[in-house]
Every structure is written in structure tokens, then in C-alpha cells.
Backbone:
């Protein structure tokens, strides 16, 4: 479904990511874990066309997308839920959700997606008229994920969805990913610092370190491997 | 004392009327700034183009000046989009200073283009449904129909733009882009398209304002500067990027400009010959800049703004 082939990304001339490749197959949940500054967000932004890919290729559903603009990539069904959420704070919850369906022309489909999101997150339905910026971090993360689901994405890329949330909210976020897996309509690429949870959720995972893949494999195996346990889980 | 009462009434009404026109002039500036953080120094020249559009097309088409307003709006929108694709798009890649000089250059270019084709003679609409008619509001308070109509139509134009931005899907996308352009791109909203749209909306609203203004304010190639300055003050007061702020601040500025005559009337009513030197009616626009300065020092984000 998504294939990143040997991409290099430079920030002001300096390579921050070199010859990196990952693959996401349909209906699989793929985790990308690594410490702060390992290049996880850079990878997702490169896929979205938000940072320039200096070398290598990105393919999505058989189409080369590394020369496309972000808004064209979104229309292909590849949705990025950014780190820090980037909600439109002064606008209401519902306005934010509807902006997530900006590319959806069919009004009925839009309404269906809205109902689906409200069913996933009843709290958003209760607060649909509230300015999204005035909600708690956990509720905002739900709004951000909900907004990402509003265009029925083929692939949903979640960037650090648990960052800065209270423990209860963290498990709620991961619970949501489980429900999406169960529904089976969306493939998820999950980028996390919360290595343990991310690996438990994923089918396949990549370990990123300073812009390179250090390790990859079935998430269960990585979870059991000595390298990962020592480096991330303090065991 | 009676003179003072009349003056207060006069100033209040005239302040409201001019305020609504100022608000419409400032609207385009605040929409453009909100979406792309660019300050358009040529904004007053867009107004001038709108004024000339109504002035020239009304006799040419044989219709009343009021009916040429949609045309003035259209010309403003086209001019805005042309400026965006021909100039602003390239300036965005450069540093802030390039944007300042770029729109400043646009101002000088448009002004001299007008000078070349229209000459320096101030001109005004002489015939029309509204011209020369007036409404008696109270003893000594006479309103020109042109100004009242301009205020009413400003309010209507304002309502249309407000509705477009706050109630339509594309308008919400404009708001999203002004709040966070990168975040909006992740929703599939093209920043380029929203920028061009902001210039179209901004150009159209200031074009309509020009078409209204030329009914009672003479147009000449240099007419834009005063209005650019007032629009800057209005946008700063209301908050950069805020549509509601532009309306409230426009009306406030209208009142501020009409304060000096009230002060002068007070001086006259106490009839002290020695105070004649303190009359300030010739300083009415100075007051606007004094307020602008105060806002910048005390509340740089303006009354309703989220940007500084």
C-alpha cells in the first residue's frame, strides 16, 4: 500500500535522514518507534510532501507521490494526524471535523463519517459546539484523530498520538486504534515514543535511530528482542 | 449650547456612516493579512481603481453609479488575483522586507498608471439617483443620500463577506488557512488557492468600497494613501485578520475622526476667545494615528485579533 524507497531528507543541506525504506501493507498496523529526534516526524512529513525528499521515492497504492503537493496526496486517501494535533483552536469541534472532510464532495458520505466519529468518540458529540482549543489534551487528540477519519482514509498516519496525555487518555487513544483495526477499513501507521504500547498494537514495526532504520520485524519479536528491551524499555 | 448638541448628533451620525465605509475598506486588508500575513501597501490603490471603475463605467454603460458596484467589485477581484499570481506569489519566497517593498512598488506602479491614463484632476460622480439629494435627520442635521446609501451598502457587503467566510465550506477553509496553513494542507486545502481567493475577496470588497466612495469623495491617482493609512489603523485596532474586528474598529475610527468638531464646538460654546487656538478640526486624521500608536503599545493583537 505505502512504500518508501531509500529516501534522503536534508535540512539546510545537512542530511537528517539517509536512504530510509519502509513498507506498509493493507490492513496492517505498522509502528515506527524511536527516541525523540530519531526522525519519526520527518519521515511522515516527507511522505506527506511537507518536507522535500532529496533522493529516493515514495509510492502509494501504485502511484509515485514524492513529487506531489500535500493536498494532492490527501486526496489519494493518505491522511496525516500531525504531532501536536494542529487543530483550528478558535473553531468548534464540529467545524474542525468538517474541515477534515474538506475533500469529500458527497454530503451524505460526510454525514455518515461525522456520525461514525461521534460514535467512536461520544465526548466529541457532547461538545460539538465548543471551541476545540478550550478542550483538554485528551479530548483534543480525539478531535484530531476524528478529523483524520472524516475523509474515510485508506491509510491513517498518527504522529505521537499519546504525547503529553494523562495515562487514562493514553490508553483511550490506543483503544481507539484497536477499534479501527477491528473495523478493518483503515490501515494505520503509528509513530510513537511510547514504545511498549506501540509495539503491542502493531503487526510490524521499525525502530528508528538518527534518521536510519536500526531494526525491523514483527512487532512481537521486537518486543522480545534484547536490543529493544535494553534501549527503550529499561529492562 | 444648542450648537454643541447639534454638533454631537452630527458627529455621531457622520461617524457611524464614515465608519461603515472605513470598515469595508479595511475588510479586504484584514482578510489578505489574515490568510497570508502580508501587508498590502497598495490597498488604497485598489480602492482608487474601484472608484475609477464606477466613475468611468457609469456614463459608458448609461446606468446609475450604484448599479456599477458589482463591476467595481469584479474589477477589484480580478486585479487582486492578477497581483497575487503576477507578484505576491514570488514575494512570498523572499524575506519579509521583499514583501514590504514589493507591495509598496505595486502602490507606486498603480498610482502612476492612473496618472498616465486619468491625469491628476480630481473627479467625482456628478449625476445619479443619490447625488445631490439629502435627508433631514433633525434640526440642523442634514445627511447626504450618497453617504447614507454608502453606509447601508457597506454594511450589506460586509454581511456578504462575513457570511462567506463563516458559513460556507470554502470560507471555513480560508479561516483554517489563516489559523494554520500547514495544518490546513493536511486537510487537503490548497494554500495557493486560498491565497488567491483571499486576494479576490479582498480586491472585490475594496473595489465595491471604491465604487461607493466616489459618489461623494473625489477620486485622483493619489487618493489611496489616506485610506490605506486609515485601513491600517482600523485593522490594527480590530485585530489583524479579524473580520468582526474590522467592522467594530471601522466604526470606532469613524467616531474618532468626528471627535475634533465636537471638541471645537465645546470651545465655541464656552466662548472664550483665548481658546480659539486650541481648535483641532484640522487634526482629525492625526487622531487616527495617535490611536494606532496607542494600540500598538498597549494591545498589539488588537481588539479581536489572534495575530500580532
Residues:
Amino acid at each position: 500500500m505505502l512504500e518508501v524507497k531509500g529516501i534522503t531528507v536534508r535540512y539546510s543541506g545537512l542530511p537528517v535522514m539517509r536512504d530510509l525504506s519502509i513498507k506498509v501493507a493493507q490492513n496492517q498496523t505498522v509502528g515506527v518507534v524511536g527516541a525523540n529526534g530519531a526522525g519519526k516526524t520527518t519521515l511522515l512529513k516527507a511522505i506527506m510532501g511537507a518536507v522535500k525528499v532529496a533522493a529516493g521515492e515514495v509510492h502509494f497504492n501504485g502511484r509515485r507521490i514524492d513529487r506531489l503537493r500535500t493536498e494532492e496526496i490527501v486526496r489519494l486517501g493518505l491522511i496525516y494526524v500531525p504531532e501536536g494535533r494542529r487543530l483550528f483552536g478558535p473553531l468548534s469541534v464540529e467545524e474542525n471535523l468538517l474541515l477534515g472532510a474538506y475533500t469529500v464532495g458527497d454530503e451524505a458520505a460526510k454525514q455518515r463519517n461525522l456520525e461514525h466519529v461521534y460514535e467512536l468518540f461520544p465526548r466529541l458529540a457532547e461538545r460539538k459546539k465548543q471551541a476545540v482549543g478550550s478542550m483538554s489534551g485528551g479530548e483534543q487528540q480525539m478531535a484530531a484523530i476524528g478529523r483524520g477519519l472524516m475523509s474515510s482514509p485508506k491509510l491513517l498516519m498518527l504522529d505521537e498520538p499519546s504525547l503529553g496525555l494523562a495515562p487514562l487518555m493514553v490508553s483511550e487513544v490506543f483503544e481507539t486504534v484497536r477499534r479501527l483495526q477491528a473495523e478493518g477499513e483503515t490501515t494505520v501507521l503509528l509513530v510513537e515514543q511510547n514504545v511498549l504500547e506501540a509495539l503491542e498494537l502493531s503487526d510490524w514495526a521499525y525502530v528508528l535511530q538518527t534518521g536510519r532504520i536500526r531494526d525491523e520485524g514483527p512487532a512481537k519479536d521486537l518486543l522480545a528482542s534484547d536490543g529493544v528491551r535494553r534501549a527503550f524499555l529499561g529492562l | 449650547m444648542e450648537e454643541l448638541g447639534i454638533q454631537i448628533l452630527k458627529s455621531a451620525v457622520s461617524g457611524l456612516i464614515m465608519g461603515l465605509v472605513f470598515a469595508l475598506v479595511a475588510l479586504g486588508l484584514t482578510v489578505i493579512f489574515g490568510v497570508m500575513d502580508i501587508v498590502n501597501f497598495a490597498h488604497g490603490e485598489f480602492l482608487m481603481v474601484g472608484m475609477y471603475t464606477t466613475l468611468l463605467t457609469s456614463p459608458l454603460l448609461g446606468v446609475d453609479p450604484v448599479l456599477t458596484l458589482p463591476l467595481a467589485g469584479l474589477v477589484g477581484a480580478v486585479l487582486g488575483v492578477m497581483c497575487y499570481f503576477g507578484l505576491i506569489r514570488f514575494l512570498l519566497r523572499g524575506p519579509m522586507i521583499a514583501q514590504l517593498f514589493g507591495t509598496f512598488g505595486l502602490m507606486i506602479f498603480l498610482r502612476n498608471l492612473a496618472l498616465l491614463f486619468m491625469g491628476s484632476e480630481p473627479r467625482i460622480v456628478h449625476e445619479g439617483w443619490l447625488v445631490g439629494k439629502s435627508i433631514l435627520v433633525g434640526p440642523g442635521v442634514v445627511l447626504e443620500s450618497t453617504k447614507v446609501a454608502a453606509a447601508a451598502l457597506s454594511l450589506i457587503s460586509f454581511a456578504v463577506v462575513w457570511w462567506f467566510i463563516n458559513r460556507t465550506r470554502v470560507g471555513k477553509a480560508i479561516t483554517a488557512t489563516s489559523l494554520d496553513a500547514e495544518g490546513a494542507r493536511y486537510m487537503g486545502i490548497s494554500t495557493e488557492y486560498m491565497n488567491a481567493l483571499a486576494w479576490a475577496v479582498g480586491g472585490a470588497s475594496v473595489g465595491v468600497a471604491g465604487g461607493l466612495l466616489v459618489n461623494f469623495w473625489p477620486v485622483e491617482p493619489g487618493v489611496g494613501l489616506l485610506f490605506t493609512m486609515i485601513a491600517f489603523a482600523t485593522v490594527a485596532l480590530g485585530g489583524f485578520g479579524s473580520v468582526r474586528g474590522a467592522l467594530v474598529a471601522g466604526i470606532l475610527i469613524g467616531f474618532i475622526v468626528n471627535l475634533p468638531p465636537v471638541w471645537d464646538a465645546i470651545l465655541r460654546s464656552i466662548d472664550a476667545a483665548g481658546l480659539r487656538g486650541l481648535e483641532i478640526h484640522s487634526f482629525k486624521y492625526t487622531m487616527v494615528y495617535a490611536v494606532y500608536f496607542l494600540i500598538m503599545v498597549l494591545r498589539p493583537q488588537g481588539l479581536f485579533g489572534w495575530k500580532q
User: Anything to note?
Assistant: Residues 2-36 of chain B form the longest helix (35 residues). The first strand of chain B starts at residue 134 and ends at 138.
